[in-house]
Design goal:
This protein has 272 residues and is α/β, with parallel strands linked by helices. 29% of the residues lie in helices and 21% in strands. The longest helix is centred in the C-terminal third of the chain and has 15 residues. The radius of gyration is 20 Å and the shape is elongated. Pfam families: Isochorismatase.
Length: 272
Amino acid sequence: MADYREIYRRTDDGGVQLGASADRWYLYEDHVHLAPHHTEGQLVRFDAELLPFVDNLNRGALAVVDMQNDFCAPGGWTDRSGLDYEACRAAIPGVQRAIDAARRHGMFVIWIYWHNRPDLRNLGAPTLHSFKHRLDQVGIGEELDNGAVLTAGSWGAEMVDELTGYMADDDIHVEKVRMSGFYGTHLDQVLRTQGIQTLYVCGVNADQCVSTTLEDAYFRDYNPVLIADATATSSPAYCKDAVLFNTKQCWGFVTTTEAFANPQPYPTKGRT
C-alpha cells in the first residue's frame, strides 16, 4: 500500500508526489494532477502554463475581482485620476466568457470588490495613499460626480453595467477593504466550507488586487489559476506581463477563457 505521507514519492505511473496525504499533487512530464485523491465527479485536464493541470470541476470556483465602475467606467476613479480606464474595460468580454464557462462547469462565481465604510474607519494611511497621490486627486470616500469613491452604496462601488446581468442570486459576494480578497474578509471560510480548493481568478487590476489575491491564495495552499484574457490593468503593459510570469513560475497556473471553457476528460484508471 502506498505511503501517501512520503513527499517526492514515485507514483506507479511515472510521476512524483508533491505534498502529502489529502493535499498531495502528482507531477508528470507533461501535466500536474491537482486532485489524485479525488476521483469522483468530473475529472478534467485544462491547458495552462507552465504545464497543463488536472482537477475536479467540483473543487473549483471563479473569483471576479473589482470589476467596478470606479475602475472600469467613464467618470469613475480611474478615469478621473488620469489613468487608463479603457485598459481595464478590456477585461469585460473575457470576464463574461469566464462566468459563462464557470456556470457550465457548475462552479460558484465569487464577486470580490471594494466596499468601504462611509466614515473610512476601516482604512489606514497606507491604503488611503494608494488612491490619493496628489493634493488634487480624489481619494477613497471623497466625492466624484457620481458619488463617493469605492464606498458602500455608491455608484463607483457597483459592478459595471456589462456584468450586472451576469450576476445570479446564489453567487457569493465578498466585500473587501484592502487589495487582497482574503485580508479581513470571509473568503477563506467560504472556500473551505464549500470544499473549494482551486481558485480561478480574473478581473482588475492585474498587478494589484488580482495579484495580491492570487498570492494570498497560494500562501493558504489553494491552487490559484489566473485567466489571462479576462484580466487587465490600467498600469503599463509590463506590469501585467510580470504578473503572468510570476503566476506561472510561482503562484500557480495561467490559462485562457478558451481553455477554461473547454477542458478535456481525464482517465483515472491505473493512476495511484
